[in-house]
Amino acid sequence: MEKNQICKDAIVSELQKKKVHLFYCLECEELARNIAAESDHITLQSINWRSFADGFPNLFINNAHEIRGQHVAFLASFSSPAVIFEQISVIYLLPRLFVASFTLVLPFFPTGSFERMEEEGDVATAFTMARIVSNIPISRGGPTSVVIYDIHALQERFYFADQVLPLFETGIPLLTKRLQQLPDTENIIVAFPDDGAWKRFHKLLDHYPTVVCTKVREGDKRIVRLKEGNPSGCHVVIVDDLVQSGGTLIECQKVLAAHGAAKVSAYVTHGVFPNSSWERFTHKNNGLEEAFAYFWITDSCPQTVKAIGNKAPFEVLSLAGSIADALQI
Amino acid sequence: MAAISPATATTAASLSLPQFTSSPSSPSYLNFKTATFGNRCVKCGVRSLENQSGHRSLDFLSNGDPISLINPNSSSSPISMAAAASESGSKCSKRVCLFHSDETRDLAERIVAQSDCIELRSINWKKFDDGFPNLFIQNAQGIRGQHVAFLASFSSPAVIFEQLSVIYALPKLFVSSFTLVLPFFPTGTSERMEDEGDVATAFTLARILSNIPASRGGPTSLVTFDIHALQERFYFGDTILPCFESGIPLLKNRLQALPDSDNISIAFPDDGAWKRFHKQLQHYPTIVCNKVRMGDKRIVRIKEGDAEGRHVVIVDDLVQSGGTLIECQKVLAAHGAAKISAYVTHGIFPKSSWKRFKLDTKGDPAEGFSYFWITDSCGLTVKEVMNKPPFEVLSLAGSIASALQV
């Protein structure tokens, strides 16, 4: 009897699952395939991405008739300003093709660190990006859902207008799962490079002891110091939402090592790494002790993932499963 | 000289003569100096031409006839060229602070030179390492209560986001009004869905622009020249006020100054161009071409009109590869045209396709063009074709300066 009930529940919950047709930008093809592999309910669709001679996009959405009445999603990556317009053109059109609902999956929301006007004249490009996204037309399913991972500033959730439904996800569960697999899992503590990172993440990681760093002004320089916690003898994992040049992480690693950390690793959701700055972290195999034992990033920034490949200490934790689940919301 | 209505040459006496300027650094330019009298804009055209010996000569417009003064948009502009400007003294109706993108600096400077009412402002355009823009609007507090404009150029998708960030920010800085001047509206040719699945990027761009926030002056005004398809005016929502201008008056002025101005016929490469422009060019004999399907090929034919012995000027809104113009040239030459020239408002010329257009030096219109006029809507092209016959650049500066007074 109980078994029948479990089967029935399983069938019902399967039936309640949404079939989703997933379109994607060219950069994201691998992640899109991984998402589709996670679930029978997600089907990949395709777009012809071409350019006219003047550089403007010449796009065609294949099988546009077949997505009528279907749940549709688009996996985007705004890795540079140049690729925004072509993806936005598709994003603005898909909801209007009589689809049942539309979801934009934008794992990494760029410009996130430029979200303030400190002086009149500052241009907060994060707000420009939020406006552009907020202007996605509604579909028969109502406002477009926008799935974003570890948005840089908590206030940014309010930059979006009511015409879209932002869904803020996080990559941290991927990290905690990975940490549990490590041989020295009992000896792990989490370090935050600044108060901002602590505010963003400490609640998700409260089962680990924490260390908080901070930048202190000394004359002209800004120096990273330990603010709270004791890394001595531990495997310290520095956690932040993104990495650009990597300067902050390197400074933190030095301070933690100086305070006796046995090993230092890092996790960022978004490995932005402009100008191949990830090269500062690779193991050089030159006999010198390596600064970082592990460096975890997700596949939110596909260009970086392609460039890094399998080079130690990097490990890529895929968002595919998390995204596949988010598409069922 | 500065009278406005056709019948009132006598009113000229009551107005002071505007200053004429030559442009030492850009002999291929037609500059229009704007003299403002009260609320009316009066414009006079000046042409400085380099003749064969390299001397520059200052010519006044043909016969000084008031009719030949430029009215940038005779069909729809509220810029009034009504009877005699009765107010004397030059006062600005609107003082405007003009910001601009990197690419449009030259045109912005020309616009500012047209009018005492327009002041150039600047923005720091820098980038972060990740390629995203790091922008700062200088003296943002100084524009409070001022009329503000931004001269944009979306020459490629890559430069849209940085300009859009400024365009979305400026109206919210307590300015009294905001105008976006986008001389060339790109994607204009991608404005239809023939198949379900076509992505009409013109509509994407119109949406993005329709989303510019309102300022204290109400909806943003959008000034654009010779938009590709007449239907595109309806792609914009009511949150924005598009102002559709044309470069044709610049062409008409230039044609009147030619020695063979009475032997000119206008040719349209297709019905689309005829629909867009024939009303502005009614006083010239016209020739209309079209493309006819023969098997797999599409061949340009003359549909109506007679080219024999005429100086034919092919008119269109834009040029890309130039293929259409060259096909028209061949057909017109085969039908006896004496000289062939071309005018397009927007010289896009991707991949330097302007190099296909040679000067006719031997009186053989099948081999070359006598003139190829473009405006300065596409700044990158202007840099490349400057001083290279048959190209001549007609500046939109005067027309934009007037539009900013609307």
Automatic annotation (TrEMBL), chain A:
Organism: Eruca vesicaria subsp. sativa (Garden rocket)
Domain Phosphoribosyltransferase, first and last residues per copy: 222-273
Alphabetical UniProt keywords: ATP-binding, Kinase, Magnesium, Metal-binding, Nucleotide biosynthesis, Nucleotide-binding, Transferase
Record PANTHER family: RIBOSE-PHOSPHATE DIPHOSPHOKINASE FAMILY MEMBER, RIBOSE-PHOSPHATE PYROPHOSPHOKINASE 4
One Pfam family this sequence matches: Pribosyltran_N
Name of the protein this chain belongs to: ribose-phosphate diphosphokinase
EC class (word): transferase
GO molecular function: ATP binding; kinase activity; metal ion binding; ribose phosphate diphosphokinase activity
Entry's EC annotation: 2.7.6.1
InterPro entries: Pribosyltran_N, PRTase-like, PRTase_dom, Rib-P_diPkinase
From TrEMBL, chain B:
EC number: 2.7.6.1
Keywords attached to this entry: ATP-binding, Kinase, Magnesium, Metal-binding, Nucleotide biosynthesis, Nucleotide-binding, Transferase
Record-level GO BP terms: nucleotide biosynthetic process
CDD domains xref list: PRTases_typeI
Keyword Magnesium: yes
Catalytic reaction annotation: D-ribose 5-phosphate + ATP = 5-phospho-alpha-D-ribose 1-diphosphate + AMP + H(+)
This protein's record includes keyword tRNA-binding: no
InterPro entries reported in the protein's UniProt record: Pribosyltran_N, PRTase-like, PRTase_dom, Rib-P_diPkinase
Residues covered by the Ribose-phosphate pyrophosphokinase N-terminal domain: 97-210
SMART domains (UniProt xref): Pribosyltran_N
One GO molecular-function entry: ribose phosphate diphosphokinase activity
Domain Phosphoribosyltransferase: 238-346
NCBIfam families: ribP_PPkin
Family: Belongs to the ribose-phosphate pyrophosphokinase family.
Protein's name according to its UniProt entry: ribose-phosphate diphosphokinase
Taxonomy of the source species: Eukaryota, Viridiplantae, Streptophyta, Embryophyta, Tracheophyta
